[in-house]
What we know:
Blueprint: E1 14-21, H1 29-45, E2 50-52, H2 70-87, E3 93-102, E4 105-114, E5 117-123, E6 149-152, E7 155-159, E8 164-168, E9 171-180, H3 190-196, E10 201-205, H4 214-228, E11 232-236, E12 253-257, E13 260-264, E14 273-280, H5 281-290, H6 292-300, H7 302-305, E15 309-313, H8 339-364, E16 368-372, H9 377-393, E17 400-404, H10 412-425, E18 428-431, H11 435-444, H12 458-479, E19 481-485, H13 489-494, E20 508-509, H14 516-529, H15 534-544, H16 565-569, H17 572-583, H18 589-600, H19 620-637, H20 639-642, H21 672-678, H22 686-691
Parallel strand pairs: 1-2, 2-3, 8-15, 9-10, 10-11, 16-17, 16-19, 17-18, 19-20
Antiparallel strand pairs: 1-14, 3-4, 4-5, 6-7, 8-9, 11-12, 12-13
Amino acid sequence: MAKSNFFNLYTHNFVRVAVGIPVGKVADPFHNAAEIAGLCKKAVEKKASLLVFPELSLSSYSCEDLFHQSALLDSTLRALEYLLQETTPLPLLTIIGLPLRVNQLLYNCGCIFSQGKILGLIPKSYLPNYREFYELRQFAQASFATEQYIDLLGQKSIPFGSKLIFEWEEQPLFKMAIEICEDLWVPLPPTSFAALAGATVLVNLSASNITIGKSDYRKLLVASQSGRCISAYIYSAAGFGESTTDLAWDGEGMIYENGTRLAESQRFAYDSQLIFADIDLDRLQADRMRQNSFGQSKVHFHKEISCFKTIAFSLKVQKESSLLLEREIERFPYVPSDPLTRDLRCQEVYAIQTQGLIQRLRATAIRKTVIGISGGLDSAHALIVCAKAMDILGFPRKNILACTMPGFATSKKTLDQARRLIEAIGCQQYFFDIRPSCMQLFKDIKHPFAWGEKLYDVTFENVQAGERTNHLFRLANFENALVVGTSDLSELALGWSTYGVGDHMAHYHVNASVPKTLIKFLIRWVAKTRELGQNVSEVLEEILNTIISPELIPTENGQEPLQSSEKQIGPYNLQDFNLYYTLRYGYLPTKTAFLCWSAWHDKNCGHWPEGEEKVDEYSIQQIKHWMRVFLDRFFRTSQFKRSCIANAPKVGSGGSLSPRGDYRAPSDSSSVPWLKIWEEIPDNEEELLKAL
C-alpha cells in the first residue's frame, strides 16, 4: 500500500464535496444530462468525491402534469443511461433527481450512482400540497412503496427506499443519507433519524422556488439541521432554467458542517455553478462522541433507526499526491476574523468574566479585590475586569488594591506601564519591593544568589513569584479582600505558572479559560471602544506592544527583559492553535499539524483579524518542533497544576482546563502515545514540493 501524503486533505479525514446547480431546460432530459455530465467532469478536476444536484434535475422540477407523459418519463431513463455511461470513468459519487415509475406509482427520487453503477434510489417522503405546491397530484410518497429493491437499466436489485445509508469503504467516517426538499421542512426530518443511525453527511436535493425572505429561512433550516444532527448538510436547489409560469428560482446551494457554513452559491445566476467545501469528518465524530445526549437519543428512537439499511460502496481516492485544503482555517481559532463577530465575542467574554467576579464578591460579601499588576497582558486584562465589576456593583475603583511588586528583573518599561494603568483606572496603588524578602529566603535555603553568585535557576524564579503571591494574600487578609488571579488558559495548558504559592493560585481567577491570543484582542477591543476612558486606552495600546515575559531573570542593561516566554515554550500563535484542536476535538497530532500548517505557512493567504500585523508564518519544521513542546508539557508535566486551580468561569466552547468544569485528566499520565504519532509529521515540505 502506498504511503499517504501528509499534505493531502484526504489523509486527515477531510472529504471534498460539491453542489452543482445546472442551467436546465424544462422537459429536456438529454440537455440536462449533458449539463450534469459536464459539471461532474469539472468536479473531478477539483478532486471532489461527492457531487449533489437539485431535485428532479434530470427532467426539471416544474414539469407539472408533464410528469404523467410517458415520453418524458422514458426520455428521463434514457438520459440517465447516457449519464451513467459518461461518468463511468470518473471517481465520483453523484446524486441527481428524477421522476421514476415503480410498480404503477410515480416517485420523486434521488438517484445515487458512481462509475456507472446505481447504488440506490431514494423516494421523497413528504410531498407538499399547499400554496404553490401540488406534488400529490403527480407523485406518490415514500411510505407507499412496498419494494425494497428494483431493477433499472439492466442493473439488478438496486436498493430502493427512504431509509438507506451509504457507507464509503475507503473512508468509514463518511456515511451519507439523503432527503428531498420538503423532507427538511417538517418537524422530524428523515435525516434526523438517519443521523442517529450513523449518517454523518446529510444531503438534500431541493427545487425550492424563491419568495421574499425564503433564503434566510432556508439557511436557518440547514444550519439548524446540521447542528442538531452534528453532521454535514449539503443542500442544492433548482435555479435558472426552471419554468417561470408562476414561480421564480434562485438556485441556492449550501454546504454546512455542524451549524457552520462552509460554502454558498451565488443566487440568481444565469450560468451553471459548482461550489466546493472540505468537510472535516473527524470533527463530526469527535462532537458526537462527546455529546452523550446524542447517544441517548439513539436509545429513545431505537425503533425508528433500526429500519435503516447500510449500503457499502467503493471509491478510490489518490492519497499519494498532495492536495491542500481550500477551506480556510482560522489562524486564531479562539478569535473570529470577522470584525463584527469578533467585537460581539469580545463583549460577551468580557461580560462573562465580569459577571463571574461579581457573583463571587456578592456571595462572599467582600467589597475589595487585590491584584498584582506587572505591566503585561494578563494582569492588565484582569484589572479591566475588576474595574468593570466595581462599576456595576456601585463600588469605588479605589476598592481595587492594585500592587506593583518589582523583583530582580523587572524592567522600567513594564513597571511604568503598570503604574500608569493603575492611575488611569483609579485604583488604590500599593508598591512592594519584594527583593529584601526574597534575599532573606535565599539565605534561609542557602541559595548561592544570596552570596553574589549569578545562579538564575528555577528556584531563583519561583522565589520571586512566590513572594509576590504571598504579599497579595496577606494584603487580602488584612483588608478583607479577594485575590484575583491573572493566569490565562495558555499558561495553564503549558504549565507556565508557579505552582501553589505563585501565580498559579488566587481566591478567584478571571482569565483561567481565556487563551493568550484572545486576551490580546480583548484588550485591543477595550482600548478601541474607550470602555474605560482615553487614558486607559493609551496605556493598553503600549502594553499590547510589549514582549511577553515573566521578568524573573535579570538583564545586562536592566531595560529589556532577557526572558521571552515564547522563546521557551513556543509562539502563543501556535500553542493556542495546538490547544484548541487538542482540547476541543482530540485530534491526532498529525492532523493538528496539517491544520496548523494550512493556516500559518503563508502570511499572505487567508484573513487576518483587524489589528494583527501580517508578520508571522511558520514552516512545518517549526510547527513540528513547537508541537512536541506542547504535547509533552500538556500531557505529561503540567496536569498536576491544573488539578487544583482556583475557581474561574468557563468562557468558550474551546474549553476550560478546570477539573470541576471541562477537563479531567490524571496528573501522572504519559505523553508517549501522542509523541509516537507526532513522529509521523514530516520534517520539511519536501513531499509537497515534489508534488508541485
